[in-house]
UniProtKB/TrEMBL annotation:
This is Cytochrome b5 heme-binding domain-containing protein. It comes from the Eukaryota. The chain crosses the membrane at residues 152-172, 178-199, 286-304, 324-347. The lineage of its organism: Eukaryota, Metazoa, Chordata, Craniata, Vertebrata. InterPro entries: Cyt_B5-like_heme/steroid-bd, Cyt_B5-like_heme/steroid_sf, FA_desaturase_dom, Fatty_acid_desaturase. It comes from Pangasianodon hypophthalmus (Striped catfish). One of its GO terms (biological process) is unsaturated fatty acid biosynthetic process. Belongs to the fatty acid desaturase type 1 family.
Amino acid sequence: MRAVQCTSRLRAQKEHPNEEMGGGGHRGEQLGSGESGSCAQYTWEEVQKHNRRGDQWLVIERKVYNVSEWTKRHPGGRRVLAHYAGEDATDAFTAFHPDQRFVRKFMKPLLLGELAPSEPSQDHGKNAALMEDFRALRKQLEAQGLFRTSPLFFILYLGHILLLEALSLALLSTFGNGWIMTILVSVILATAQAQAGWLQHDFGHLSVFKNSTWDHVVHKFVIGHLKGASANWWNHRHFQHHAKPNVVKKDPDINMLNILVLGNILPVEYGTKKLKHLPYNHQHKYFFLIGPPLLIPLYFNMHILQTMYLQRDWVDFAWYLSYYARYLTCYVPYYGVLGSFVLLTFVRFMESHWFVWVTQMNHIPMDIDYDKNDDWLSMQLKATCNIEHSAFNDWFSGHLNFQIEHHLFPMMPRHNYSRAAPQVRKLCEKYGVKYQVKGLWESWCDIVRSLKKSGELWLDAYLHK
């Protein structure tokens, strides 16, 4: 079915597709200048044809945009937009952009038109009532002030991280660098690093300041100077995860580089194709050797350096170097250069265990599949679960025990998740969407059980299909 359009606009787009439908030229500016009165109308069938690299349309609040060229300049990375090509991206757009009025200035040149009046607002047969109720819930939570930050919370949180850093130096200065003191200092530094990881996550999601510019600045300071990592690397990777969690080929967090096979679908595919990069039926055992201990000290560090070099991201590289300059200045007097790097490696080793168990307890045991084009609420609830609320669980996980609320509302300050949770749960119950809450130990055991089940599915397919 062809889109219903004004004849002159249709002819212009056919004759000059790269000019009229591109990313910000003079013609694009003219195209966007008539956003409110645009007469071009499209069907979902037409929109869904444009879902390939170099030809990508998406819909936001019934407006149709051509983001084919804009993907190269999108601050969140090109892949996030590509994940929604040919789809309705309204809820994802709302979830990730705090100042929508500002963002719409960049969207105007990309506007093609809007959905035809006969077309529903929802694509792929999504539940319109559920989506409307979810958006109403978001407005209700905003009216309740749950998207407003408590400055004291984050001041104290940053303070306790800096206090831990200072405590490690005070202990070394007072008691020396014996084995017992070194182990204690390592635990303290690993705790500071883990907590700084949760804090940078807050700033990365623009959930602290009213002005997102300050979030970006402080994010670079926390992840760069306090942790020795890259803000842009984190942004481009993490927002893909939020945009399509546990979706094969779209969520980088489930890209296990053929080391693990996750969920129920991929193991069978690997087995059927006779792929055996590792003995996956034993992955629940070797996970303990190559997962928690190596993710941060080996894979993340290599990937961060590679990304900064390939993208020529010298600003993040300067922040990265500032961490090591500070660290070596503080610890070389006690351990020397080699000893300081050995200490840091041990700290990263412990932090990596902490990070892996906390971040994966909400996701690996959940549904992992190809994109089913679910609505925002259903997609996030399939891929996430919560861990029981307690003061320790909240602190230990950086409030990521409220993974459901965090995924639904990534810009919500985390100290408000517990207040939002009952209202989210009520909405899920209304529509029969499973809202899952586990104990901390149970969730860790589920990671291993899930890996074991996936390995067995692979072996069965490998031997019999």
